[in-house]
Amino acid sequence: MSAVIGSVGTLEAASLPSVRDEAETLSEELNRELAEVEGIIRSALLSRSPHVTRPARLFVDRGGKRFRSKLVLLASKLLGSIDHGSRAGAAAVEMVHQASLIHDDIIDESTERRGGPALHIDEGIINAVLLGDLMYASAIDTLSQVGPLASVTVLSDALAVMATGELEQRERVRDFDLSYADYLRIIDAKTSSLISAALVIGGIAAGCSAEQREALAKFGSEVGTAFQILDDVADYESSRERQGRPPGNDVCEGRVTAPLILALQECSTLERRHIEVLFRSVPNDRTAIDELRALIARKDGFSRAKILARDSVERALPRLEHFPPSVPRSHLRKSALAFVEAA
Q1: What is the chain's percent helix, strand, coil content, to nearest 5?
Q2: Model pTM?
Q3: Among the residues of 238-268, which ranges form H helices?
Q4: Cα 8 from Cα 10, distance rounded (Å)
Q5: What confidence tens digit (pLDDT) does each residue in 63-119 have?
Q6: 79, HSE (Cβ side, Cα atoms, 13 Å)
């Protein structure tokens, strides 16, 4: 990985004499553009029926990292500049992401989101489902008004893939025979597909070539994989304050993820049975998560998962070489590296 990072980093350092100043300028521009994106989201949702305004405002006001929106904007900057098509794409991707969170919380019976009550707890399941549906529809409508058909197709395809991934994940609840390859397929559908779509939509808005579109899609897929693997590690290791939800949430919902899959590969039959018993007991005994976490750590489940996340980032970085050296390219590189360096 160091060779890849070094080659890209050296090239950019040599080409950009005022990297720090230009990076600050880019950051300021992205913040301004994200404010514009926020306005598009609010206009799309809050201009609807007054029956929609209150729950929509409640959810939108909670904010979020806007990571996927920023990816749309950065992909456009890779090729030149951000325009209204880029902003509409960023808003559409964010609405899809937020809608998926609303529906996920209902499906998983989660009661918390971002340190507060999940929307369906405040507004009821029916209103939350309908608001999620409205956000999906508003996303497509927003993008179709200014974006080319190719962008609309990318987003609608991502929606279909996300739903397919959710269905497969539901079918594999507490399935201790889930292979790592199966797990990768599920997270590629549920998580990586929208991250990949965000980058491609930003690239299309800026007129990317077919080769560059493919590079953006592959970069997004690999970064999305790393992102989800590390999120699954954090579900075991992080505190409620850091995650905005109780630790062990995935276990309570029966999701078999990378740390457990990798640990089970190293277990004897007796150890495997013990881990399965612990896993099943967590929803009724949250103290069992501590023993489960310790067993996974002893079998190197967490460390191996982090290595595999780093491998994904290593595969992602060369995709950026399809674009000329620039501050946006450096920003994307640093964003990808930030995931694994923070783990």
Answers
A1: 80, 0, 20
A2: 0.89
A3: 240-243, 249-252, 258-264
A4: 6
A5: 678 899 999 999 999 998 999 999 999 999 999 999 999 998 888 888 777 778 888
A6: 25
Ordered by where they begin, the domains of the chain are 2-342 (1.10.600.10)
Q: What is the C-alpha separation between 90 and 108, in angstroms, rounded?
A: 27
Distance CA 73, CA 33 (A): 8
* Residue-wise DSSP of 125-183: HHHHHHHHHHHHHHHHHHHHHHS-HHHHHHHHHHHHHHHHHHHHHHHTTT-TT--HHHH
Nearest Cα to Cα of residue 316 among 195, 194, 235:
195
Rounded CA separation 319/324 (Å) = 11
Mean pLDDT of 18-37: 88
* Half-sphere exposure for 56 (CA within 13 Å, toward CB): 23
Which residue do the tokens 């109780």 mark? 246
Q: Are 94 and 102 in contact (CB under 8 A)?
A: no
- What are the CA-CA distances from residue 246 to residues 27, 154, 249, 305, 307 (Å)? 32, 34, 6, 21, 25
